[in-house]
Specification:
This protein has three helices and three strands, in the order βαβαβα. It is α/β, with parallel strands linked by helices. A three-stranded parallel beta sheet has the order 2-1-3, with helices on both faces.
Length: 65
């Protein structure tokens, strides 16, 4: 099953994207609330897709990418 990493500091955005867009299509969801954790999870979990916010705590979304 494809894995999607969502890097977003606002919990309500994570919940909306995961529950309304991705989970109904069968994606496994990985989440991170800041850029540094998102980068670590990207390297550890090797997701098929990363969805990230640009303005994040600790490291920007652009720096993660």
């Amino acid at each position: 099953m494809p894995k999607v990493l969502i890097i977003e500091d606002r919990r309500e955005n994570i919940v909306f994207i995961a529950n309304n867009l991705l989970k109904p299509l069968g994606y496994d969801i990985i989440t991170a609330r800041d850029g540094a954790l998102g980068l670590r999870k990207a390297l550890e979990d090797n997701p098929d897709l990363i969805i990230t916010d640009i303005k994040l705590p600790k490291m920007s979304g652009l720096a993660v990418l």
